[in-house]
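Recall that a protein's primary structure is simply its ordered list of amino acids. Everything else, from secondary elements to tertiary packing, is in principle encoded there. The following example makes that idea concrete.
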Amino acid sequence: MNERVESREGSSLAFFTEADSAEVVNARMAPDADQRLREIMSVVVKHLHEAVKELRLTPDEWLKAIDFLTRTGQICNDWRQEYILLSDTLGVSMLVDAINHDRPEGSTENTVLGPFYVPNSRYENGADINLDGKGEPVVVSGRVLDQVGKPIAGALLEVWQANADGFYDVQQKDLQPDNNLRAAFTADANGEFWFRSAKPLYYPIPGDGPVGAMLAALGRSIYRPAHLHFMVSAPGFDTIVTHIFTPDCPYLRKDPVFGVKESLIADFKKNDDPAEAAKLGFKGPFWSVNWDFVMAPKAAP
């Protein structure tokens, strides 16, 4: 008893008890350990122990949790990061992003990066990035602007999306051309950009792993609403990582990674004019979407 009293008055708790479990664990950290790491681990341990106590977890249930995390790691490979998928589906990726990208009103909002970003090859404005020819054609255009509407010349826009079968090129290296539906463009002197692609469709996130099994058990959808990924960067500005979504998708309110924001739902318009289609190199009706990205100045460190 005396030892417990002394420990509370200045020394570390010596022995583990249910009541003091988190305090005992956190007291074992060396005082010269990295201070930010100490802060993070103290909070994680505190809330993890609180959850275990609140739930009164059984050894069987905890072993199932360990098995789930083990299988999550085992399924990861060069192009599949199941832990990112787990973070996304628990809403943690969006929460971390929201905390770190509180931009001025009017700026383009961020959303999740997703697991399929890779550096993209440069193309000239107007290029057709739909290399497998699947899906309905779309022409995407817009501008990159600062907070007062001034064009940001030379801004880099990286874009990537899934094909009409619901897969990114890195998921089907033997079935899709390299860099299919993936490119980087440079905004011109007026901040303008444009390219041709395929109208995005909804698609399932990988459902054959532990994260997919978790969503199925919870009765949650595995379908991401139709979207185009964008990363927009320019010197002196906060990099935008975002999507634009089609307004007609049935999964806008069921996104398993919580990436949809109302301000990111775009207006895709159908165009049946044969002359307009011919000018763009399309053989029939096509879609068009115009979207401006508004960048905020990079915050001071």
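The first strand starts at residue 137 and ends at 145. Residues 2-56 form one domain.
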